[in-house]
Amino acid sequence: MPSFPRVFLGLFCLLVAVLLLAPTLVVIPMSFNGNKSLAFPPVGFSWQWYANFFSNPDWTTSFTNSLIIALIVAVVATVVGTLAAFGVTRAAARTGGLLRALLITPMVVPGVVLAIGIYAVYLDAHLVGTVVGFVLAHTMLAIPFVLIAVQASLEVFDRRLETAASSLGAGRLTVFRTVTLPLILPGILSGALFAFITSFDEIIVALFITSPYLKTLPVQIYTSITRDADPTVAAVGTLLFIATSLIIVAGLLFGMRRGRT
Amino acid sequence: MTAIPDQGAHTGSERPTFLSRFQLRGAVWLAAPAVLVLLVALAYPLAIVVVRSFTDPAPGIDNYIWFFQSAVNRNVLQRTFVVAAWVTLASLICAYPYAYAMTIVGRNVRLALILCVLVPFWLSGVVRTLAWVILLQDSGVINSMLRGIGLSPVKLIRTLPGVIIGMTQVLLPFMILPIYSVMRGIDTRLLQAARSLGAKPWRAFVQIYVPLSLPGVYAGAIIVFILSLGFYITPALLGGPRSTMLSSLVQNQVLSLLNWGRGGAMGVVLLVATFLLLAIAAPLMRQKHTSNRREA
User: Fold this and answer.
1) CA of A13 vs chain B CAs: smallest distance (Å)
2) Which parts of the sequence belong to the ABC transmembrane type-1 domain (chain A) (predicted)?
């Protein structure tokens, strides 16, 4: 490419990068606002909204609820999704393809349609506002992400290693534990991380199946935005932004060390 | 590790022996727990939505007649598609050059560009929408800057352009990642070959590179369009009464008016539109499977 279009391309990409990242950064100054307002520019400086997040039971319980639910979902969805990934990869090609398409549908079903359906079922089954209800719905939403992650590592996995191990006398379980599992572990771990984040961030279904006794963090953020201009949401946003960035940077560095980037 | 090879491609090389064929038959059952979860938490709830749309309050297609006869509903349906189209177009314009740049820069710059995509991709959508509320509101960043340079403030929040801007930014990573994953598999020697045969760089790019990148473009466009159709949080927080989208209407019917039949009928319209689009677009993306959410 000649140099003029290159410069133009560079400027354009800089603009897109700013568009991707900069708007979110606005929550940082707002989180230190001295006033109870989300109006810009913030006035004064205070840590009170962070203090509020860590002391106000509305925020602390919704945060722990989200954490507990997301951890259970990460475990359940990873086990179920990994088994499914084995099923999809090792079944006959056509069955596997069909199964994969089926298991990925939660990604494309419009959130609200799913939410009213689940809400209807949960009203009958008395699952509204229960941990079981949240875990079931979020596990369903997380399965596609685990499936994609684990399947990707299964597809580069050389099955002849399993044949070699079993020809040397290892039982199927031993083969899985000592050969297969260690090799696909990175895929399983990233699947678990995807499942955790899917549940931790999920909001649409959560808005329907929440109750005053069981709220998750996104629900608390959403109701806080719609109800009042409490800068605590900006403090939470800042904390989530920092946590997300750290996880991704760690992931990129890890990936770079493994030479896969 | 973004691209997932096609199903048929890898199974062809390893002919199953008798033993592994036996294993293969059993393998399908490993997916049983996942299928069970999907039946309980996806298929059954969706079936209930469909059934209620035909039975609540009375059996028949009254809810659908009501939906398509009301001018307000038809407007919202049309607006939902128009907004989805604008968001798809705007994010494509931003994403294509960006994804292309990701493939030609050095490793460190590429890492920075990937970081700029992945952080918003993984950050909670509610938080990112909150940022747009702060930016666009009447006393927000954009309007205080306009006032600062002596211009009159503009109405952005609760308007359609505000919704489109916010949704584009929230959905942009879903466009960039599939395009990038296809682009980095393109053999750039093809471009050199075209040029050595006398094609101008620009012509080589348009005639060789762009067609090869189209599967990624189709994948990104269909993902962004479908997600836009069903988008709920961002339009609900950034939009107003005159920029309502279908999802808000569904939510309103069910939660506020307790009208499951009408809400269900709207939901079914949204669902059918989504699956029709997928069925139409699937052959266009077939050349290469792309999956989002996997990078690093």
Assistant:
1) 5
2) 63-251
Q: Which superfamily does B62-285 belong to?
A: MetI-like (1.10.3720.10)
CA angle B115, B118, B120 (to 5 degrees): 110
Q: How far apart are CA B174 and CA B221, in angstroms?
A: 9
Size of interface A-B (CB pairs under 8 A): 289
Q: Which of B15, B80, B123 best probes binding to A when mutated, by most A CB atoms within 10 angstroms?
A: B123
Q: What is the mean pLDDT of residues A227-256?
A: 88
Which of A39, A87, A260 is the closest to B27 by Cβ? A87
Confidence grade of residue B190 (pLDDT, cut at 50, 70, 90) = confident
Range among A206-215, B193-202, B205-214, B276-285 rated most confident: A206-215
Residue of A nearest to B268 (CA): A113
Calpha distance A127→B44 (Å, rounded): 15
Q: Which residues of A touch B134 (CB under 8 A)?
A: 26-27, 30, 38, 40, 234
Using a CB-CB distance cutoff of 8 angstroms, which residues of chain A are in contact with residue B131?
A: 23-27, 237
Rounded to an integer, the average pLDDT of B247-272 is: 93
Predicted confidence (pLDDT) at residue B292 exceeds the cutoff of 80:
no
Domain boundaries of chain B, sorted by first residue: 62-285
Comparing CB atoms, the residue among A19, A112, A240 nearest residue B94 is A19
Residue of chain B whose Cα is closest to the Cα of A26: B131
Alpha-carbon span A33 to A39, nearest angstrom: 9
A contacts of B230 (beta carbons < 8 Å): 109-113
A203 vs B124: CA distance, rounded Å: 9
Task: Confirm whether the ipTM is greater than 0.95.
Answer: no
pLDDT of residue B23: 52
Is the pLDDT reported for residue A2 higher than 60?
no
Q: Look at residue B203 in the predicted model and tell me its pLDDT.
A: 86
**Is the distance from CB of B156 to CB of B142 less than 8 angstroms?**
yes
Q: In chain A, which residues have their Cβ closer than 8 Å to the Cβ of B291?
A: 148, 152
Q: How many CB atoms lie within 10 A of CB B292?
A: 20
How is chain A split into domains, by residue range? Answer: 59-218, 231-261
Of the pLDDT bands very low, low, confident and very high (cuts 50, 70, 90), residue A3 is low
Q: Fold for A59-218, please state it.
A: MetI-like fold (1.10.3720)
Asked if the model's pLDDT at residue A260 lies above 60, the reply is no
Choose from A1, A90, A107 for mutation: most chain B CBs within 10 A.
Answer: A90
| Yes or no, beta carbons of A87 and B270 under 8 Å apart | no
Cβ <8 Å between A16 and B94? yes
Distance in Å from the first CA to the final CA of chain B: 7
